[in-house]
Predict the 3D structure of the following.
Amino acid sequence: MSKQVNKKENFNKAVFDMFGVGGVQVVTEDAPETEAPVAEQTLSTEVQTAEVAAPNAAHAAPYSLIPATFLAPGTSLEGKLKSKGDVELAGMFTGEIEAEGNVTLRADATCNITAASLTLVSCHLKGDCSVSGSVAISDNSELTGNINADELHCSGAITGDIVVKGALSLENTARVYGNINAGTITMARGAIIKGSVSMDRA
């Protein structure tokens, strides 16, 4: 054992002399270093726990599990589209749309639409519309077909008969070629109507 210690001592001394690192240390395998035992410690204060209340559904933030349906620009689709959510079409569509949510058209379409609300933005729609809420037609949009809705706000052109239970609003750029039956009518100077007009208050 002493020969092994002497060899290690000599080697460590030689390394120190040559490189200036290390030191004369003797490590023996017979006496491994042991750490002093750590005394057990106790907390001076008690940990307080409380029950976590279950989340209240009435105060939870509303969210929808139904995603919106989107048709991208440059896309064309033909057929029947049924959705429980909102629908936004920026591509060409031909067929029929049934949506429980809102429908927004940003591209030309040839179809009949049944929805909660309908908005036309810079497009031409050919087809009949049955909407439980409101219809909005922008000043550079055109609808060729019959409209049955609760409310209608038009700045564009409509060719077809209109039945509106509530308010019908025509901006100065509006052009209507067809018969109108509405609860109330607001018409700006410059708007054009070619057809019969009747008002029935519910």
Summary: The helical segments are 2-19.
